[in-house]
Design brief:
Strand content: 15-25%
Helix content: 40-55%
CATH architecture of the largest domain: 3-Layer(aba) Sandwich
Structural class: alpha/beta
CATH superfamily of the largest domain: Aldehyde Dehydrogenase, Chain A, domain 1
Number of helices: 17
Distance between the termini: 67 Å
Number of strands: 15
Mean pLDDT: 96
Low-confidence stretches: none
CATH topology of the largest domain: Aldehyde Dehydrogenase, Chain A, domain 1
């Protein structure tokens, strides 16, 4: 096992050294060529079909759309970026920053996005003149293998070494993945929390992501129809495979009835208490989420769980009422399925308190959503309150959460499928994983005129209030 991984690493290092001297123009041409491996419609469709066939999760049309949109947005971001030579210069401070590769990247990717996540990491790595070796989820390995076939053709077209992009041979094993992480120069891990912990304990510098369990707040000022359409679009997309998909909605009492009716009109079915009990028994048979429910459609989940209420055969998503949070309330956690937990609270402050409690159970660091049409200062104050009082790295205002959180053409976040959750989520970064995380930066420091401050200047506010004793 070790010898096999060492061979992959050596081939990757040789390939990386071959492009270490590439100009920005050469790098950008290589990135654009490799992006076409996914953006070409027939290849994208084939990858989407493979992903659903072999992983058994999501749906083909949404995989196709995700593959295209996420890759297109990333290429837009990368086209604007400088990743070779001088990337910043401050003449006043005498500092020049030079972009340098990190070397060989080990990329851990999940079965929920077996095409979109690998191509995202491949493009970011190549943009920074790195080689990359992917350790896909076993269920996503066939999709990744086919993607790499396309990628190698595109690398060949621009004369770049195909060993810049490799993957572990199938069948994918934990032993090989562990060895890869130990021998690489950087690990970028997306997937289960056990994989993230393994990445952090590998002894190699690593970026890993936190758990999702997104809650969104509908306040008393919300346009409930607009909010419901956005939530439904996000919740149902690809059968809720995204960690950014809404897992719960917290509704202020004065908007509750309107919001529920709007969610029903958008395709949601609010379960009876009997069906809620049946669904819980099916989804959490041993207190843990069953794979039988993950990323299946709402009608399929209803069939498997034996639900009996009306409208289930055409539902876009299912809704369950909840009053608590924590291990005794499994619907308060991440469900990775089109199941939306609904809480009712008396006011906005109570909504913040509830979300904080939910995130103390699961989801701290990821993000929170707000639906409100109050304009100007009032809306800004509420968004700021969420940003300052909740353990979240992102506050998403009036947007479909799963589409917005990982970057969108109508917000300024970088396109990514890997969301850092800060120390709240046991991560070492709180941004969307982007190309800068794949860089080393060397700084040139030059002498500048010396300016030495006085103690009186630096401690002036203190000295105004207190004596010097």
């Amino acid at each position: 096992m070790t010898a096999m991984v060492e061979t992959l690493i050596k081939k990757a290092r040789d390939a990386q050294h071959a492009i270490d001297g590439y100009t920005q123009a050469q790098v950008d041409l290589m990135v654009q060529s490799v992006a076409w491996a996914m953006l070409e419609p027939e290849r994208n469709r084939h990858l989407a079909e493979l992903a659903v066939r072999d992983s058994g999760v999501g749906n083909i049309d949404d995989k196709f759309a995700k593959n295209f949109r996420k890759t297109l947005g990333l290429v837009r971001d990368l086209k604007r970026a400088v990743s070779v030579g001088v990337i910043d210069e401050d003449l006043a401070l005498g500092i020049t920053e030079i972009a340098r590769p990190v070397g060989v990247v080990a990329a851990i990717t999940p079965s929920t996005n077996p095409g979109a996540t690998p191509i995202n990491k491949i493009l970011n790595a190549l943009k920074c003149r790195n080689a990359i070796i992917i350790a896909p989820s076993p269920k996503g390995a066939s999709t990744c293998q086919q993607l790499l076939t396309y990628v190698h053709v595109q690398l060949g077209k621009v004369g770049a070494p195909i060993d810049l992009v490799q993957m572990l041979p199938m069948p994918i094993s934990k032993e090989a993945t562990t060895e890869l992480m130990k021998l690489a120069d950087l690990v970028v891990a997306t997937g289960s929390q056990s994989n993230i912990r393994q990445a952090y304990s590998s002894g190699t510098p690593a970026f890993g992501v936190g758990a999702g369990n997104v809650a969104v707040i509908i306040d008393e000022w919300a346009d409930c129809n607009s909010a419901a359409e956005k939530i439904a679009k996000s919740k149902a997309f690809d059968n809720a495979t995204s960690c950014s998909s809404e897992n719960g909605v917290v509704i202020v009492s004065s908007a509750y009835d309107r919001a529920i009716e709007s969610l029903k009109s958008a395709g949601g079915v609010l379960l009876t208490e009997e069906d809620r009990a049946r669904l819980q028994a099916f989804m959490f048979p041993d207190g843990k989420l069953s794979s039988q429910a993950v990323a299946q459609s709402a009608p399929e989940i209803s069939r498997r769980a034996g639900l009996k209420g009306p409208g289930l055969e055409v539902a876009r998503f299912l809704m369950v009422r909840e009053t608590g949070w924590g291990p005794g309330h499994p619907f308060s956690g991440e469900k990775l399925s089109p199941i939306l937990t609904v809480w009712e609270v008396p006011d906005f402050d109570s909504a913040i308190d509830l979300v904080r409690n939910v995130y103390a159970f699961q989801g701290a660091g990821h993000s929170v959503g707000l639906h409100s049409v109050k304009s100007g200062v009032a809306l800004e104050e509420r968004a700021r309150a969420l940003a300052e009082r909740l353990p979240v790295a992102r506050v998403i205002v009036n947007q479909a959460h799963a589409i917005a959180t990982g970057g969108s053409f109508d917000n300024g976040l970088p396109f990514s499928l890997s969301m850092g959750c800060g120390t709240w989520g046991r991560n070492n970064f709180s941004e969307n994983l982007n190309y800068r995380h794949y860089l080393n930066i060397t700084r040139i420091a030059r002498p500048i005129p010396e300016v030495v401050p006085s103690v009186d200047d630096l401690l002036s506010e203190y000295f105004e209030k207190f004596d010097r004793g």
